[in-house]
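Our platform keeps sequence and structure together, in a single record for each protein. Nothing more is needed to write down the fold, since each code stands for a local backbone conformation. An entry from our holdings is shown next, in its original layout:
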Amino acid sequence: MYELLKGIRVLDLTTTYLGPYATQFLGDLGADVIKIEPPGGEVGRSPRPSRSPEMGAGFLNTNRNKRSLVLDLRKPAAREVLLRLAKTADAFVHNMRPQAAAKLGVAYPELRAANSRIVYCFSPGFDQDGPMAAQPAYDDIIQAISGLSHLNRDSSGVPRFLPTIICDKVVGVHLALAVSAGLAHLLKTGEGCEIEVPMFETMVSFLLVEHLSGHTFRPPTGTLGYERMLAPNRRPYRTRDGYMAIMPYTTQQWMRFLECIGRTDLMAQDWVSDPVKRSANVDRLYQIIADAAPHRTNAEWAIVLKDADIPCGAVNSFEDLLGDWQLESVNMFQPVEHSSEGSLTAVRSPFKVTDMPKKPDRPAPRVGEGGISLLRDAGLTPSDIKKLITDKAIGPMSD
């Protein structure tokens, strides 16, 4: 981790993937992230594979650089502990529906009453000003209703989910950005704020950056959908021994590519040399790439296109990534020793901060790991802690 956010404390009530992915960014950058979990741990601990029931691979990959505290927020004593911690926190993050947060007594008014400077960020399924405000949502639901699964339909028109939790991760990045912006506001003005990051609206905004297309204008000048993205021939191209992405983009790159494949006859054609006309004929150009690709191997294409400074890349499998020379050279995959899970492979944070030392990451916590020191730091005495345990307001803990 880097210490860009050293001194910032974040109370993290997030679950599954969206929220924990967001708060892991904050922990990677040095914030003190306190993961508040229900008895038994949050639901995101359970998906397989795992070595122990509460430490699934997905949990390990989204919860490093955090401490865990188990609070049964259905009990008033546990809420009192949370609000006590909130007095020393800078941000509070969750991905519940506000109705659920209010039921637990952790809505914005309660947190603001405890700490008027708190940055309160949450990610519900839907904008709370709309008729679907109280509806539940998960990644698959948002993929469907945002238009993403339609965009990813197969050749027969059947919609498909992307085989990744894309909505959770995209919205998670937006949530991390919202917390960071709220913290900047706090540090500049001394004032807290509440920021909502709804999943549905965030993904619609994300997808329509390019796909609003002709409907950007009033009246529309064309259809919805970015033509280049939807071109039938935009795909990884079959080479002599595999598949490769080949992407001339600028006029100069197209000219060099046509030289590489012996099609200099096209270089003077205005539908190739003129960027506007080329955009209207992009699928025709992609067909030229598809026709040329099988004449060389991936390795041969890599040499030719690198010499011509044309973007390209072979299609990698996940197995290929583990041995990729670029990723190996920057130590993207790192060995980690976990106190309960043993030897692990971690995908490190992609951030790199110039002239700042990077400190070792803290592996994802076991249920309640770090809780005792948190409560001591909050001023609770051993007898206070013992009573909370007896009343089952807090769960098992360790340092």
Q: What stands out?
A: Residues 37 and 73 are 9 Å apart (CA to CA). The mean pLDDT is 96.
